[in-house]
From TrEMBL:
Residues 34-61 are annotated as: Disordered. This is Flagellar basal-body/hook protein C-terminal domain-containing protein.
Length: 102
């Protein structure tokens, strides 16, 4: 496998891990908000100018549990670290090849 392919795979993997981290962080934030009681949400909406009888809207989709989101965040952290190591190794190999050819 050419070094360029290894480097590109490492970069692509890191970018996927970064997207996974962003998604897990958003899920953690949603889970924390969902844990608030209905009365806290209703009082917060009243402070924003909503009428007392207005219903609090439900989330659009089912959010993962807080535990699942934290585990997903940790998995993506390990994925990012592994891909960073792949990029470093490809860089070192490429540097060694350049030193040998010169």
């Amino acid at each position: 496998m050419p070094i360029g392919d290894v480097l590109n795979n490492g970069i692509d993997g890191y970018n996927r891990a970064a997207q996974g981290i962003a998604q897990a962080s958003a899920d953690i934030n949603r889970a924390a908000i969902d844990q608030q009681s209905d009365s806290e949400r209703a009082s917060g909406r009243q402070l924003q100018g909503a009428s007392a009888g207005e219903a609090v809207t439900a989330p659009v989709s089912e959010t993962p549990s807080l535990t699942e989101s934290v585990v997903a965040l940790k998995v993506e952290e390990f994925n990012a670290k592994a891909n960073v190591q792949t990029i470093r190794t490809a860089d070192e190999v490429l540097g060694t090849l350049i030193d040998i050819k010169v």
